[in-house]
Amino acid sequence: VFANIAQGPEDPILGVTVAYNKDTSPNKLNLGVGAYRTEEGKPLVLNVVRKAEKLLVNDQSRVKEYLPITGLADFNKCSAKLIFGADSPAIQENRVTTVQSLSGTGSLRVGAEFLAKHYHQRTIYIPRPTWGNHPKVFSIAGLAVEYYRYYEPNTRGLDFQGLLEDLKSAPAGAIVLLHACAHNPTGVDPTLEQWEQIRQLMRSQGLLPFFDSAYQGFASGSLDADAQPIRLFVADGGECFAAQSYAKNMGLYGERVGALSIVCKSADVASRVESQLKLVIRPMYSNPPIHGPSIVATILKDRDMYNEWTVELKAMADRIITMRQQLFDALTAKGTPGDWSHIIKQIGMFTFTGLNSEQVAFMTKEYHVYMTSDGRISMAGLSSRTVPHLADAIHAAVTK
Ligand code: LMR
After folding, report:
1. Rounded to 5 degrees, what are φ and ψ at 107?
2. Separation of 104 CA from ligand 1 center, angstroms?
3. Quaternary structure per UniProt (predicted)?
């Protein structure tokens, strides 16, 4: 019955890894997917995660029963505190409902399904450009996707005026997707003053903020600083959605651990919202997995382990910043034409190089450097050993 089924395209990001795996060159370099690597080019399991896992395995009282539909209660509580702040009035007033979901994507999807079913305005504005999966997640859930201006290629910075203009002309009540920090793919974030202007504009237009927080701790190295934009919105007492992922900041990629929080106007509304989230989740995947959130809760509940995590997280963020400097220095030393200062100005896991798709294809073919066709490179995939190779590839691509 499927004899005529069409071959689907590879995913624009995860498909880069598929192509990389097929390459037999010893010099191949995967800068596609945003996944942290050590200086030796290896995936990293944090020491504090290993420690938490040992505690969990040795605890004979632990069983493998189903979690509730909303997930592990301790995990949800800790996740809300992590993103909104331990002393958040919204949490104290029980106005926040948090459900454990399948990492960032799953949290976005559950939120989107809920909005498509219960919110009067089914249009979501997402930045141009944005993470490639965003438009698919929202449209498949039943929302209409529109774009707001975000990136200015000439300055390789924020198109703040364009952003404000587009949000100003959005219909009242429209949902707006905001990257909490370390914008993917551009590495360009608004300043706190700009965030405040965005907040004022959105609240005055009645726009609903939906934050995607996939990199808390990765932008500045500080968990609190990276959550500031979200906390600005929550502090004004208005509604707010937040999708959290522990893939990058705790290195729990394949465990698929994340949370969706919805800040409501009252405890009563939050409790009814939660009852509806359960009706979204149950037919989708019934209830979430237990191992990943148990690791997170173990770490977040223990002061020493929490501190240990922040040190390891900062070390990852710092290594990425070092890679930025090294790549910038290497291109400067080679005299590669162009201004490459955006490599050290942008933040988070990615550099949006400005290389076009032909240049990317050239680098892949001739230098076995793998990256997404929009010119994004994952700085976390680089090491001191591989920086010269990447610099050679970029130099050749822009001078050919
Ligand atoms: C990325 O943008 O590379 C990551 O968020 C991984 C993914 O799922 O696309």
Report:
1. -65, -40
2. 10
3. Homodimer.
pLDDT of residue 170: 98
Q: Is 338 left (phi over 0), alpha (psi -120 to 50) or beta?
A: left
Q: Residue 3: inside a domain, yes or no?
A: no
**Domain final residue pick, 242, 266, 301:** 301
Q: What is the pTM of this model?
A: 0.96
- CA dist 244 and 81 (Å) reads 12
Contact criterion met (CB below 8 Å) for 390 and 369: yes
- Closest residue by Cα to residue 97 from 240, 228, 300, 290: 240
- Tens of pLDDT, residue by residue over 209-245, are 999 999 999 998 899 999 999 999 999 999 999 999 9
Q: What is the model's pLDDT at position 279?
A: 98
CATH number at residue 206: 3.40.640.10
Q: Degrees (nearest 5) of the Cα angle 229, 230, 233?
A: 95
Report, as residue numbers or ranges, the catalytic residues: 131, 212, 248
Which residue lies with its CA nearest to atom 5 of ligand 1?
A: 34
ipTM of the complex as predicted: 0.93
Q: Based on the structure, what is the number of domains in the chain?
A: 2
Q: Give the number of other CB atoms < 10 A from CB of residue 169.
A: 10
pLDDT band at 375 (very low <50, low <70, confident <90, very high): very high
Note whether 124 and 270 are same-domain residues: yes
Domain annotation covers residue 225: yes
Residue 387's domain comprises 14-45+318-399
Question: Residue 305: how many CB atoms within 10 A of its CB?
Answer: 17
DSSP structure class, residue 7: P
Q: Does residue 60 fall inside a structural domain? A: no
For atom 1 of ligand 1, which residue has the closest CA? 34
Residues 289 and 334 in one domain: no
Residues flanking ligand 1, CB < 6 Å: 13, 33-34, 131, 133, 184
Tokens of 47: 């020491």
**Ligand 1 centroid vs 374 CA: distance in angstroms?**
14
- pLDDT tens by residue, 257-305: 999 999 999 999 999 999 999 999 999 999 999 999 999 999 999 999 9
